[in-house]
Design a protein that fits this description.
Blueprint: H1 5-12, H2 26-39, E1 44-48, H3 54-59, E2 65-70, H4 73-80, E3 89-93, E4 105-111, H5 122-130, E5 133-144, E6 156-157, E7 163-168, E8 174-178, H6 184-190, E9 195-202, E10 206-213
Parallel strand pairs: 1-2, 1-4, 2-3, 4-5
Antiparallel strand pairs: 5-10, 6-7, 7-8, 9-10
Bound molecules: S-adenosylmethionine (SAM).
Length: about 210
């Protein structure tokens, strides 16, 4: 059984976007796309952990520019093949924790990565991503809400309260994946002191958190 998150997403790359085909999530996905497109209109964005570019493709429609990054080159190869009509995207392999972030960006988008960060690493993660953004710039995080009958069950909780799922890929390989589900209170707490203009959007399957870096 694999327990390495990066290796899991490498192995999953060809089937990653099937998660976005779940029928019950389509209304939320359309709402989230509209919300993100509104927030990022005219912005110069750094996207971290962009994966196969599902959100890159949508955000690029209203952004000024996007630098889309991920640690996985195979995911980026798929992201690059999408159609970007404004020709406003660039792609780079980058590890969040080993990224120079120069120059600083006007906005940052991090979709579905916070849920894969251990609770005890969350402060470091927030500090790190904020350091990539200009003071006053926008940070947007988005992730899953646990919904019975749509989300995979949590199979394990560790001493820090981190939760794990067992996931099987189409090739039959089994992966133990860290997947935390944060609530609004937790999210507001982790950005306390380094964020202004905080807005929390609660959809059925997803939450979106927007703030400005102070
Ligand atoms: C759940 S996927 C999200 C992909 C995309 N944002 C989406 O919403 O479809 C998590 C992504 O985080 C990437 N990732 C994991 N650790 C990373 C790190 N340290 N630096 C950059 N990307 C990382 C994985 O390669 C994977 O593409």
């Amino acid at each position: 059984m694999n327990t390495d998150l990066v290796a899991y997403y490498k192995a999953r790359v060809a089937e990653h976007e099937k998660i976005y085909l779940k029928p019950e999530r389509q209304v939320d996905l359309a709402k989230a796309s509209e919300l993100l497109q509104g927030i990022f209109t005219g912005q110069d964005i750094l996207e971290i952990a962009c994966g196969t570019g599902y959100w890159t493709e949508r955000i690029a429609q209203t952004a000024q520019s996007i630098m889309a990054t991920d640690i996985n080159d195979a995911a980026l190869a798929i992201a690059m093949q999408k159609e970007y009509q404004k020709n406003n995207t660039q792609f780079a392999v980058a590890d969040i924790y080993n990224f120079s972030g120069v120059p600083k960006y006007g906005a940052l988008f991090a979709g579905f990565i916070l849920s894969h960060i251990e609770h005890q690493q969350t402060s470091k993660f927030i500090k790190t991503i904020n350091s990539f953004v200009k003071p006053g710039g926008i940070v947007v995080l988005m992730d899953n809400i646990f919904v019975e009958d749509s989300s995979l069950p949590v199979t394990e909780t560790d001493g820090y309260g981190n939760t794990y799922q067992m996931r099987t890929l189409e090739n039959g390989s089994l992966h133990r994946v860290l997947k935390n589900f944060q609530d609004e209170r937790f999210l507001r707490d982790i950005i306390k002191g380094c964020a202004g203009n905080v807005e929390y959007f609660d959809l059925k399957y997803y939450w979106v958190l927007k703030y400005t870096v102070v």
